[in-house]
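sorry for the late reply, my laptop died twice this morning and i had to redo everyting from scratch. anyway the thing you sent over, i finally got around to it. pasting the sequence first so we're on the same page, its 325 residues, then the predicted structure underneath. double check i copied it right bc i was rushing
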Amino acid sequence: MFAYLLRRALYAIPILIGVNLLTFVLFFVVNSPDDMARMQIGVKRATPEAIERWKVERGYDKPMFFNSAASGTARVTDTIFFDKSLRMFAFDFGRADDGRDIAQEIRDRMGPSLAIALPTFVLGLLAAISFALLLVFFRATYLDFWGVVACVAMMSISSLFYIIGGQWLVSKLWSLVPISGYASGLDSARFLMLPVAISVIAGIGSSTRWYRTIFLEEISKDYVRTARAKGLSELRVLFRHVLKNAMIPILTGVVVVIPLLFMGSLLVESFFAIPGLGSYTIDAINAQDFAVVRAMVFIGSVLYIVGLILTDISYTLVDPRVRLE
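ok and here's the structure:
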């Protein structure tokens, strides 16, 4: 097990370097350091001297990937890519282009993101699996047919419709909860109820169809017919046998999502003005703050790799036949 985890961790290093390199290329194709300086300083005050001073203060005055003016290893190390990338592997993200500490911002904003993501994840998972089991229990009936129709309809509607419609109906028309904003402590519950409910409803259609397909595939196998022949009820077959044997494909989608919960929801946090990591990323993209964008992409890549490793480990817990070689 330890050797497997060590090998996977070593595999992650070139992946992270590649992701970081791709982020650099994509970002600087759109924005040069001069463009970033003009946006931060202001177009009216962006004199050539001010731009050059801004670049020097933030380390953007060096060549991007190769410094031909240097000698030896400095040709590679004395570059923007090396200077900005090496510290991230020690989770030292430095400061944003506006001067704020990125690591502190991430710590402050992680709480609101988790406050939305965790209830959404748990409630959405329970609702989707329960609804899928209900449709499988009444398979080939009108309830199953109209349930699938409802799932397809919910999948076909944009998330923006749920957000805007929910804000108009629940907040503006009924005045049940605030339309946007956030508060700390227990008072945050009234700000979180609507975005959590909307997130669960927006994702239940696709999740239910996915789980229903898994359960239908399992329910046609020989072990299910054997269980029925022993006299077990349909409910017992579904919950004791079908659900248990469907755990591997379920875990494939579930465990990978868990680390990404820390990243927040871009749309929900932006529309509900919640100071989480999702809105932090959107604000950084709008402000062309490459330091923040680079840090969030790096964290997302690390968390996704951790999720894949957790998925492999979880397989061994639900299926003893699986071994990590």
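The chain has a mean pLDDT of 84.
thats about all i looked at so far, will dig more tmrw
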